[in-house]
């Protein structure tokens, strides 16, 4: 979950929105990794991350939660304890195709920001990208 939050810059993780899934067969609980991703990728373009602000500005302003205000500190601690838990299996070309298919739903500036951010994140967290 923290790997996904770091990669997609989800600033809305807090202790009241960490979900678990119960597996009846194993009778064990597991974290639900895709839960409440609504504020990822600088989604609040009306107030906190105006679309006319640069990616660098947004990156300086964003704060992780709940264990540290820095995504990398949280991620390093979680990976030290539990190892790498996820591997993303998409390419930048996959992202471009998806955004192109959905381009009529979003302004061009939003699509450009998403492309910029995901390109950056894929470089930064390259070890999470499955080949």
List the main descriptive attributes of the protein structure presented here.
5 helices; two-stranded antiparallel sheet; single chain; Phosphatidylinositol 3-kinase Catalytic Subunit, Chain A, Domain 5; 131 residues; mainly alpha
Note poorly predicted spans. Answer: none
CA distance, first residue to last residue: 21 Å
How much helical structure, as a percent, in the residues? 40-55%
Specify the CATH class.
Mainly Alpha
Number of domains: 1
Radius of gyration, Cα only, in angstroms? Answer: 16 Å
Number of strands: 2
Individual helix count: 5
User: How confident is the prediction overall: mean pLDDT?
Assistant: 92
Q: Which overall shape is indicated by the principal axes computed on the Cα atoms? A: globular
Beta-strand content: 5-15%
Main sheet characteristics? 2 strands, antiparallel
The CATH topology label is: Phosphatidylinositol 3-kinase Catalytic Subunit, Chain A, Domain 5
What is the CATH architecture descriptor? Orthogonal Bundle
* H and E string: HEEHHHH
Question: Looking across the biggest beta sheet, what order are the strands in?
Answer: 1-2
Which structural class is indicated by helix and strand composition? mainly alpha
């Amino acid at each position: 979950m923290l790997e996904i939050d770091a990669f997609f810059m989800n600033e809305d993780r807090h202790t009241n929105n960490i979900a678990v899934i119960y597996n009846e067969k194993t009778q064990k609980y597991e974290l639900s990794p895709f839960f409440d991703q609504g504020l990822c990728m600088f989604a609040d373009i009306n107030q906190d991350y105006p679309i006319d602000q640069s990616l660098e500005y947004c990156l300086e302003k964003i704060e992780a939660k709940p264990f540290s205000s820095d995504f990398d500190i949280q991620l390093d601690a979680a990976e030290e304890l539990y190892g790498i838990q996820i591997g993303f299996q998409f390419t930048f070309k996959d992202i471009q195709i998806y955004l192109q298919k959905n381009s009529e739903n979003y302004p061009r500036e939003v699509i450009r920001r998403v492309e910029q951010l995901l390109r950056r994140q894929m470089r930064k967290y390259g070890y999470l990208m499955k080949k």
